[in-house]
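Exercise 7.
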Amino acid sequence: MSDRLSPFEAIDNFRDYGGYAVDDRLLARGRLYRAAHQARATDADVARLAALRLAAVVDLRRPSERRAQPSRRPPGWAGTLIESGHDDGGEAPHLTFLKTADLTEASGRAFMTETYRRLPFEAAHVDLFGRYFRLLGEAEGPVLIHCAAGKDRTGLLAALTHSLLGVAQDYLMADYLETNRAVNLEGRAEEMARRLTAMTGRTASHGAVVAFLGVEAAYLNEAYRAIAAHSGSVGGYLQHVLGVDAPLADRIRARLAP
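Solution. The predicted structure, written as C-alpha cells, is:
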C-alpha cells in the first residue's frame, strides 16, 4: 500500500483511499484523499495541494481546533469547504484526556474505545458526515477529508465510505490500519512519549503512546458495533442517521466505482 502515501514535508498521513476492488471494478484513484491537518504545511506542500486540484475539503475538526491550528490552503483555492459550526467552547476531548488521565496503555485504550463508541452519533459528526456524502454525490473533482491526526474521525469516515462502496472488509481494515505505518508509529513512539511527558508533567509509557496515537482494529470494530446496535447495520446508519438514501448511494457508486 506504499503507493497510496503522498510524501508531503509537513502534512502527516496524506494518502489516497480509492483504488480498491469493488466486485469486478476498481474505485477511482485520485478522487478520495485523507490526511492529518495542514496547519504546518510548507510552501512546497501547499504547491503540491494546488496540483491536486481539490474540488472540496472536509475538515472534521472542532472550531477550537481550527482556531488553534488554521489550515494552509493554496492561494485562490475556490473549492468547497465543509466544516463544523458545533462549538461548545471546550477543548477537544483528546486534549482533556492527555492533560488529566494517567498515560498508561490501559487508559489510552479505554479512552479510544469509548471515543469510537460515541463518534458515529455526535452531532457534529452526523452533520459533517452527512454533508460529505451529499458532496460525494455531486463533486466532479478530488475530495480531501481530514481531522487533526487523520486517524480517528477521518479513519471512521473513510471506512464508512468504503462500506457504502462495497469494499471488502479486509481491505477496509487494512486501509484504516495503514495509519500506523504512515506515521511510523513504532519508530516515533519514544519521541512522542517524551513530548507527552514534557507537555503533561506525567510519564507516558510506550504502550500508552501506541494505544492513544495509533489505531487498532478493535477501535473501528467498536464503532461498527455501536452502529449495528443503534441502526441495525451500516446501511441503516447511512440512511437513517446520515440521510444517505438509495438514490444518493447509487450516485456515489456511479461516480467512484464506474
